[in-house]
Amino acid sequence: xxxxxxxxxxxxxxxxxxxxxxxxxxxxxxxxxxxxxxxxxxxxxxxxxxxxxxxxxxxxxxxxxxxxxxxxxxxxxxxxxxxxxxxxxxxxxxxxxxxxxxxxxxxxxxxxxxxxxxxxxxxxxxxxxxxxxxxxxxxxxxxxxxxxxxxxxxxxxxxxxxxxxxxxxxxxxxxxxxxxxxxxxxxxxxxxxxxxxxxxxxxxxxxxxxxxxxxxxxxxxxxxxxxxxxxxxxxxxxxxxxxxxxxxxxxxx
Length: 253
What we know:
CATH superfamily of the largest domain: Divalent-metal-dependent TIM barrel enzymes
Number of helices: 7
Number of domains: 2
CATH class of the largest domain: Alpha Beta
Shape: globular
Strand order of the largest sheet: 5-6-7-8-9-10
Largest sheet: 6 strands, antiparallel
Order of helices and strands: EHEHEHEHEEEEEEHHH
Strand content: 15-25%
CATH topology of the largest domain: TIM Barrel
Radius of gyration: 23 Å
């Protein structure tokens, strides 16, 4: 597992000193602020090489008080300019060999809403970020799974749909509202509808809190352990490594 630290932690400290401090502290990676107008990719590459550090990714630059860098700005033209600015930040991530860009839907340092309330600012931020995507998964067993999310572009239900296909069988989950199970040929599909179930129960918060308290009070084994959290982090890290290196990762070793 790799650990990274953001250069923002060091304030206005010169970049060379930041790299030296991060390297001396034993980190393997560094996360840089994506001030692309002042970003010198060659300099960053040289520092990363000199201090044996990897640039893991960039933290977005909202550029406040520059309103044209604010994804949640009241002016639609400023929001469009902000989207273009963030696209440049994404390209910079690719140039420096990073894996991600941390995006904040409103400018960091913006301490007041520009709309009638914070909800209006939130909606402006949502309108700026289109997050529709589809993933096709093929498992070692031959099972095929798909994950589709579609929300901000059209708000068409279901926003997320997860499907798994077996031999003449399918199970699909639509958001947290409905489960559809087709067990096989010439068999009726089973549908469970959870629309009327309270939100906190449907999303698992009630059970999660109950099991957490029970583990503390009665010493029971939590359903999700620290080991599970570690393995999940290892899996996600492996996905990034696989995508970057273009090869399969074996988690059994």
